[in-house]
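== Polypeptide entry ==
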Amino acid sequence: MKIVVLDGFPANPGDLSWQPLEAMGQLSVYPRTAPQETVQRALDAEVVLTNKVVLNRHTISHLPHLRYIGVLATGYNVVDVEAARERGIIVTNVPAYSTMSVAQMVFAHLLTVTNRTEHYSIQIRQGRWSDNPDFCYWDTDLTELAGKCFGIVGMGNIGSKVAAIAHALGMQVAALTSKEAEQLPPYVTKMTKDEMLRTSDVVSLHCPLTPDTHHFINESSLRLMKPTAVLINTGRGPLIDDQAVADALSQGLLKAFCADVLTEEPPSRSNPLLSQPNAFFTPHVAWATKEARIRLQQVAIDNVAAFIAGAPVNVV
């Protein structure tokens, strides 16, 4: 059996091993694959693993031996699932491997805004504290989170973990979710979109990207939010309208924006958000702790083994 990993570098830049896959068949691992290279590299493969390389209807139609697609992620929008289903090709994903890591990143971003540790670390290395006449100084707002309202959009695995952490920090927690109120923890208050946006001091996005959630945060929703609010997106870039958020920041309608994801990745240098001083970014790495990547790779390998054994799991 020929197994091809089309873009193995993000999940495994060299600190993990693909050896268990090698034991299952003839393995080829490519660090990256350009769109024009996909068919050639996967042409004879029965099993293909992809992270962000797109397998659309056209590509799938040119892979006659393909029987299985394993997505090295939770989201599987890079695969035309309907085209695969028509061919009888199994498609799997890796659910919930990064829950703790993404939740951790949410609060790393939030604490960047409320405590500005990196800002002060840079200043101190430049001598600002050494030259200070008092034992301490601050030149940014320092904010305590206890008592503030943390609004969560989407109460899946990650949203639920974020809610638990916010509660542990003494925050009130509001949620916009399809779950019934009685299904939520007692410390979470279910709200409508408008209620949640008006009430929250922090809004964190954890819903899937669908036609209904595309630009969930836009000019009209931003005008409902407090001008002192912090918006965090570790979900999918297009959940927000980049220009609308940039305008809200520049006009003082939003205190800060934090993102691990953007609409275009890597972003264009002309992205309007990049010029906003109160916008803070990480390069889509919330999922990428070593612990999460170990889980990701192990589940992906287990998925392939289950498929070969005739009992596929995590099928989408």
